[in-house]
Amino acid sequence: MLKIAMIGCGAIGASVLELLHGDADVAVDRVVTVANARAQTEATVARWAPQARVLEALAADDAPDLVVECAGHSAIERHVLPALERGIPCVVASIGALSVPGMAQMLEQAARRGNTQVQLLSGAIGGIDALAAARVGGLDSVIYTGRKPPGAWKDTPAEAACDLDRLTTAFCIFDGSAEQAAQLYPKNANVAATLALAGLGLQRTQVQLFADPGVSDNVHHVEARGAFGSFELTLRGKPLPANPKTSALTVYSVVRALLNHGRALVI
């Protein structure tokens, strides 16, 4: 059985624990609590993963089979980089963190020094395999348009651009590069960063973000063109009930990655 250490146990982590509960091949047996949430973490772990230990950090001699980050951007530097240096493979959900200059290189270098690998998850978007394959043959353009209900943009810079509570039509709250989008909207723009890392990079991937009272789902639209041809993808993701800024598909992406590490046959 694959023994996993989970970093963070908020809305995403708790849902992952629930979906993995009782799995025969994969078990979360360590949960690292973050953001002063130990009591909440202990309650969640007691319900869905009673075999797991709740920790403040992984000890220097603690070596799980795999580390999965579900905690947000700050956890990557504090927990993921040290694990990679020690040779522990890691799975990262907070892809927007890689918009910070040098972060992707830090992860890669730490994994090389540890002779291991860090996997970046597709999260709330599909088509990442096709986009990454198209990059091999040559990409000319990648345009991402994201639409979420106005409430999903609360506590972000969008509040300074419009009155989210009074919108009657879609309002463009951002138009620029994936790098800028991920920095301004780190909890909402992981998709933009994911597409950029799979395709043309953070500076050349174009992004538009909308607060749209006409949608109830998180709507992602991707257009890619290049030597391979072209494709368009529209995905309407249901928001995670515990956190409307996150698509439920993000949780399923984490679970799929963990099961792929633990199963004998994967796709």
Could you please describe the fold and organization of this structure?
The protein has about 270 residues and is of the alpha/beta class. It has two domains: about 1-120, NAD(P)-binding Rossmann-like Domain (Rossmann fold, 3-Layer(aba) Sandwich); about 130-245, Dihydrodipicolinate Reductase, domain 2. It is built from nine helices and 13 strands. The strands form three sheets. It has a six-stranded parallel beta sheet with strand order 3-2-1-4-5-6, sandwiched between helices. The chain is globular. The model has no long low-confidence stretch (mean pLDDT about 95).
Q: What is the compact description of this entry?
A:
This protein is of the alpha/beta class and 267 residues long.
CATH superfamily of the largest domain: NAD(P)-binding Rossmann-like Domain
| CATH fold node name of the largest domain | Rossmann fold
Q: What string gives the helices and strands in order? A: EHEHEEHEHEHEHEHHEEEEEH
User: What is the CATH domain class of the largest domain?
Assistant: Alpha Beta
Spatial extent as radius of gyration:
18 Å
> What is the tally of helical segments?
9
How much beta, percentage-wise?
25-35%
Q: How many individual β-strands?
A: 13
Termini Cα gap: 19 Å
